Amino acid sequence: MNEPNMKIASFCALILISFGGIACASDGSAASDAASLDSEVPRLSSGASVQEVEEEIGAPRAQAELEDGEVSLYYGLWQLIFDPVLKVKIRSFKAGYWPPGRSFKALDEGVAKLKAGASKHTVEETLGKPEAWEIKDFKQREVLWYGNGRWKLVLRNSKLAAKTRSRQVS
Hints:
single chain
């Protein structure tokens, strides 16, 4: 096949793959899978083994070995970290992305307004979705991250217990 025909064939294949992917995802299954994970993953028992988690919610989309021998399983927007048992669950939110160059003034002011004891709902109502929700023990020990790690908001028993600003220069 000559080069122009190869380019046309490649382009057509790309179009078919793209529309096939759109058609597969348009049935709502991707959204229902995400909703299912959002209800199941937080409730996974800290201390569960990799095998127990896979039996509970299925095979991960990816697995990696982290530093210090930790194992990370990836399910949708969730990252589960094992050392050797489940110790942390982290949910990333696209809505919490903080683009480079965006001012932190409104975020800093919103965090300043939050009072100790505020609910997770109040925090998200004030600041929006976090960039990440880190769960050590569901509804008992959780962390909300904002502004690309600028703010770490610690929740104990679903209430704001601490606000820490990182030392990073932004």
